[in-house]
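User: Before I run my own analysis I want an independent prediction to cross-check against. Here's the chain; please return only the structure tokens and, at the end, one sentence I can use as a sanity check.
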Amino acid sequence: MTPERLSGLDSSFLYMETPTMHMHVAMAAVFDPSTVPGGYSFRLIRQMIAERIPLAPVFQRRLVEVPMRLGHPVWVDDPEFDIDNHLRRAALPSPGGMRELGDFAADVISRQLRRDRPLWEMWLVEGLEDGKIALITKMHHSTIDGVSGAELLGVLFDLVPVPPPAETVPERQFDSRIPSRVELVSQALMTSVVRPVDIGRMVWRTGQAIAGVRKVRQTASGKAALPLSAPRTSINAAVYARRRTAFAAASLADAKALKNKMGTTVNDVVLAMCTGALRTYLLAGDELPDIPLVSVVPVSVTPDVAELKGSNKVSSMFVQLPCQLDDPIERLMAIHEGTKGAKEEHHALGATTLQNWAEHATPNLFAAAARLYTGMKLANRHRPVANLVISNVPGPDFPLYMGGSQMMGMFPLGPVMDGMGLNVTIMSYMGVLYWGLASDARAVPRLWDIAAAIPHALTELMDAAGLESEPFDVPIHLGPGMPPTANWIRTAGSSSDASEPATA
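Assistant: Structure tokens:
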């Protein structure tokens, strides 16, 4: 590929990263290898992945920094690419349940990706109970957002156990030349020439957008939450390197039935489920605030900024989570009104505002500020910007296969931010909402309790709305003698030390 400069937003995820705040996204997916024609083989899986990597340039490109950080880094083809630096094999200890898989996933996401090679890792994990296998993927946020990450599934996974022979794809031109320091500096200086003019335009446009937001706040029926209006809880602390993970699952059909009955959206229901689970968690810790929590909710703006370069095309809304309200339906409707207001304000601000300002961020200043903020634990000294991040990404409603193994479920895991020690990411697949919870291990020691409360929060909403739940089963063995959801809860919580996983 021709060297390509990162967009400002993509670069910001690099500048924000510190030894304790890791800016990668991950996924833990469980597969049933009994569907593999001829039987499962790590060698065949490795061969399949190696053959498909060239179909997505993201897997073979690495960063080159501009000297003195005079500009954003550039992507180049890695002339020393070696799949064995990225694809690894591991085995879980007995009994190989979801708790053990969560321990392993937490361990993997507790360490930064190396910057001297393409920014991704995959771990093929064996030893799960009932002969299942798992794939843990980790990619830096500078390379993908939620939508583009979901699209990568189409490269690695198939729609049938034995796919037809692939059509001949023109061989991608691989450019092994690394730009010289002079080239990198020259390009950065040329870009900086027009920066004052662009910044002047952005200031004018942003001023107009802010005026539009103020007008919306005066007339909208619902109100978006404001940054720095969140109450402080134990979740909100400066983060350390060690992570904790937990998994949960809930019925997508029930969520849709509830949104149809109440006139909301599925995303509103998801936020209400999270609100109910957090209420249970905070009540148990005797720290329920008397004002709403605030969540950052990433929003894809891909259709609105299709012409912009870069892997990340996202913005964010701030949404109130009224944990202080007793009635679950009242909480749902308050969230519905709040998200309406947040969407109106987001529309008034404009889809490109965040991208445009990020484009002209000064790399050295941005990176130095991030290091200072995390190094001095400043997140402990001011009111939280928000309490947590909640991201909901639609996934496929048809089965996927990896090397013939059918995917049984997948749990996305997002980055944990300073001052927001909890990230909740949801992806739907085959009628199930799969929840991946990642947290700072110190800030949220009872992460498993939040995961346990998520399906119960949906049951509470359904009962309050007078709806009957449809039959629901998680298609993974959860152990004998327990209802599917309850058994899932008992086996899904996890924690981990940040030590190196033992490879097989």
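Sanity check: The domain at 201-395+415-492 is CATH 3.30.559.30 (Chloramphenicol Acetyltransferase).
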